[in-house]
Each structure stands twice: as C-alpha cells, then as structure tokens.
Amino acid sequence: MTVEIVILAMIAAFLGLRLYAVLGRRAEQGDEQREPAPRDALGRLDAQAPTGQANLSSQPRGTDRGADRSADRKDERAPLAGGRSAREPLSVLPTVERGLREIIAVDRRFDPHAFLEGARGAYGIVLGAFWRGDKDELAKLCDADVATGFAAAIDERNAAGEVVDNRLVRLNEVVITGATYAAPYARITVRFVADIAAITRDAEGHMVAGSLHDAVETRDAWTFRRNINSADPDWLLDETDEG
Fold it and tell me: How many other C-beta atoms lie within 10 A of the C-beta of residue 103?
C-alpha cells in the first residue's frame, strides 16, 4: 500500500506540473497580446473608449485630476502626454491644460509634443536669422509687428557698424506656459531657457562685448499664433518677451 501511494503521488505531481506549464504559457501569451489601454488626445487613460480605439475628445472629463484640485493648489502642474504615442508626459498648469484642450477641440490634428518640437527648432532658426541680419527669413517666421521690431534692431546694429557672433550653446528648458483660443486664432506661449555665447564686434573686428568662453543663461517667453481656419499649418512668432 505504501508503494502504491507513493506512485500515485508522483503521477499527481507530474500531471500538476504539466497543467501549470500549459496554463502558464497561455497566460503569458494573453498578456503579450493584450492591447494598451486607450488614451485621449492629451494622452490620458480613457476607460470609456473600446479597446484599441483612442478617444480623441479634448473636453475635460468629470474625473479629470485638474478639475477637483482645491483653489490653493492652482500652481500644481498636471501631466499631459501629447498625441497617442508613448512619450514623456508634459507638465503644465491646469489653466494651460484647459487652453490646450480648447485648441484640440477645434483642431484635432494638434499635438502638444509636435508643437514643442517645432517651437524648439523655431527658436534656433529665428535667433540665427536675427544674428545674421536676415530680414527676409524673419518676415516668413514672424508676425509683421515682430518682424518689424527685429528689422529695426538689425538696422540699428548695422548703423553702429557692429557685427554679432552669437551661438546657441544649448536649450535647457522648453515648456508651454500659456495657451488660449479666441476664434479663429490659437496662441501658445513657450518659455525657453538657453545658454548663449554672445559676442559683439565693431566694424574693425574688435570684440566690444561678450565673451569667447562664457555662455550666458537667457530666458525668453515667446508666443506663437496660428489661424485655425487657415490651410497653412505653420505657427508665426506673435510676441517676444523676457521669460
């Protein structure tokens, strides 16, 4: 009887291991095939949308974390993930989030991450055109008033016989600090924190200001504008200020 009990126990253990192996593999396959949870246009998890479909609604939900914060926590930032890809979430104030949602409500193609990448590139291009004194390039990238201001500064610099030899060393911060929509214009303000090596030379090539070795931290707040009804997808630099 003892030998029979031992044999039966071994058979039971063998069958248990086989069953666990089959069920374990199926469970792992199920986890691998499971689709990621759908997200809305700003990257928030959307529990109401069917699996595999992203809800592109840009209206704040009743359970939105920004809506039920108390008034004394208005400075706390809310994370936003742009578009429907797994990118680092943006960190913006609730007031900025509302503005971005208003823009998405009228322009479903708008993606905060893509906009920030474009703003990052525009910052370097505009500064480069200004330093070179390229008025035509600035006129394409800026609102008429901003382009006129840049042109006046270039003329003043030329009249003094000065030449700038500036270089954008690095961009340390590019963050959205404001977003509004007033039909038909969307306006977004971006703060740039950059290290810039700035050198000014006179007509004879002598350095009159700046340093060849030290970069200076610069803070700018630039506002970009776009007519949502226009077929042109480009944003124009609408306002410049110190950040």
Answer: 21
Nearest to 39 by CA among 108, 86, 93: 86
Counting Cβ atoms within 10 Å, is residue 80 exposed (0-12), middle (13-18) or buried (19+)? buried
Tell me the pLDDT tens digit for each residue of 17-69: 565 554 455 445 555 555 554 554 455 434 333 333 222 223 323 333 333 33
Residue 61 sits at the vertex; the CA angle it makes with 89 and 234, to the nearest 5 degrees, is 55
Q: Is the peptide bond before 184 cis (omega within 30 degrees of 0)?
A: yes
Check residue 210 and give left, alpha or beta (phi > 0: left; psi -120 to 50: alpha).
Answer: left
Q: Report pTM.
A: 0.65
SS3 190: strand
Q: In sequence order, which residues have a C-beta less than 8 Å from that of residue 80 and are 6 or more positions away?
A: 42, 43, 44, 89, 90, 91, 92, 97, 100, 112
Residue 238 · residue 146 · CB < 8 Å? yes
Per-residue pLDDT of 72-98, as tens digits, reads 443 444 444 444 444 667 778 888 999
Q: φ and ψ at 176, to 5 degrees?
A: -75, 125
Output the six-digit token pair for 125. Answer: 């291009």
